Amino acid sequence: MAEIQLKSLAHSYSESPAGPEDYAIRQLDHVWHKGGAYALLGPSGCGKSTMLNIISGLVQPSEGEVLFDGQRVNELSPRERNIAQVFQFPVVYDSMTVFENLAFPLKNNKVPGARIQTRVAEIAEILEIADKLHKKARNLTADEKQKVSMGRGLVREDVTAILFDEPLTVIDPALKWKLRRKLKQIHEQFDITMVYVTHDQLEASTFADKIAVMYDGQIVQFGTPIELFEHPNHTFVGYFIGSPGMNLIDVERSADGVSFGAVRVALQEWQIERLQGLASNNIKIGIRPEFIELASGAAEGSYQAEVLDMEDLGTYKIITVRLGTQQLQVRMHEDFEAGIGSRVHLSFPPQWTMLYVDEFLVQEQS
Ligand code: ADP
Ligand code: MG
């Protein structure tokens, strides 16, 4: 097990990249600490698999270094790096039995026979394939094959880290939930550094203590699920995390804050000060549907909005309102009632009104 550090890492699949758009990984620095349970979350094509393949050694980065416990490993082969990697689609030897498949990585590493027996039994038990050990892999269902594939990653005790690249894609939804819990349990039991790639925020937050959100070849935030929810560091994190995501509104500078159309949004003193120091006119405010408040009347600092739609989601409602030129989504209590076309008064609590300049969060200076 090791700490994995990525130092000034960048990668382009093109031999002569013309600009940032030719990079699958744009220059980044990142540390995966020893023993952590991490998720790497982002949309398809943002560079997740490229990053895993660079860590395991399947891809040589065009720039920067990969360090394991402070030692450069760029020149080491995947085998020497000793990373277990589980892919989206099962990698099993069809002609071997489940037992032989699981034992294979251990045999390769000259683990004694008795230890192989107990370790394979242990992993098969956890993955609930103990009764399949003597079956040929070719006779397994797709789900079972992927369990074997995961087992092959989990069986080794000496690995630097285990990297999972969207491993539950082919798994039946009901089993998905169970396997995710199992992985978490395995992490707690064996304390191995694990990086779990997914494009599903729910999957990321149920597995990981900390999530790296990747967007367009960059890690735009690395934080706990709560940090990502409460203080999205980038508009993409606001939009991608949450259901629905954060309301993001293009605004202009105004005397005591910012405005969009005729709507003025007062900001906190420190936000105004920081904004004055920034030249860009790419300014947005962000507020989550959960944090917009319903005001009882036209109080100061409240806005009148028109209800356009209301979606009843059982324990809560999502209403869509028009405020000036913008449509916003607001999460309301299940008892909330308002007719389509009726007026409501909303307010934006200052502590939940985020300011973004050039898509990044403007933070209070400490
Ligand atoms: P993700 O796993 O997040 O979906 P990838 O790391 O697979 O993203 O891909 C990142 C970007 O690199 C994408 O634009 C993809 O098309 C490109 N890419 C991935 N693999 C290759 C390759 N072998 N050759 C050229 N381009 C690639
Ligand atoms: Mg991928």
Outline, from the CA principal axes? elongated
Reported by name, the CATH topology of the largest domain is Rossmann fold
Helix content: 25-40%
Beta-strand segment tally: 21
Describe this structure as you would to a colleague.
It is a single chain. Helix 3 runs parallel beside helix 5. A 6-stranded mixed sheet has the order 6-7-8-3-9-10, with helices on both faces. A 6-stranded antiparallel sheet has the order 13-12-11-14-20-21. A 5-stranded antiparallel sheet has the order 15-19-16-17-18, with no helix packed on it. With 366 residues, it is an alpha+beta fold. The protein folds into 2 domains: 4-239, P-loop containing nucleotide triphosphate hydrolases (Rossmann fold), CATH 3.40.50.300; 246-361, OB fold (Dihydrolipoamide Acetyltransferase, E2P), CATH 2.40.50. It is built from 10 helices and 21 strands. Adenosine-5'-diphosphate (ADP) binds at residues 13, 24, 42, 44-50.
Brief summary of the model shown:
With 366 residues, the chain is α+β, with helices and mostly antiparallel strands. 26% of the residues lie in helices and 32% in strands.
Keywords:
366 residues; alpha+beta; Rossmann fold; OB fold (Dihydrolipoamide Acetyltransferase, E2P); 2 domains; 21 strands; binds magnesium ion
Itemize the secondary structure elements and their pairings.
Blueprint: E1 4-11, E2 25-32, E3 37-41, H1 48-56, E4 63-68, E5 71-72, H2 78-81, E6 83-86, H3 98-108, H4 113-126, H5 142-154, E7 161-165, H6 173-190, E8 194-198, H7 201-207, E9 210-215, E10 218-223, H8 225-230, H9 235-240, E11 247-254, E12 257-260, E13 263-266, H10 269-276, E14 283-287, E15 293-295, E16 302-312, E17 316-323, E18 326-333, E19 343-347, E20 354-357, E21 360-361
Bound molecules: adenosine-5'-diphosphate and magnesium ion.
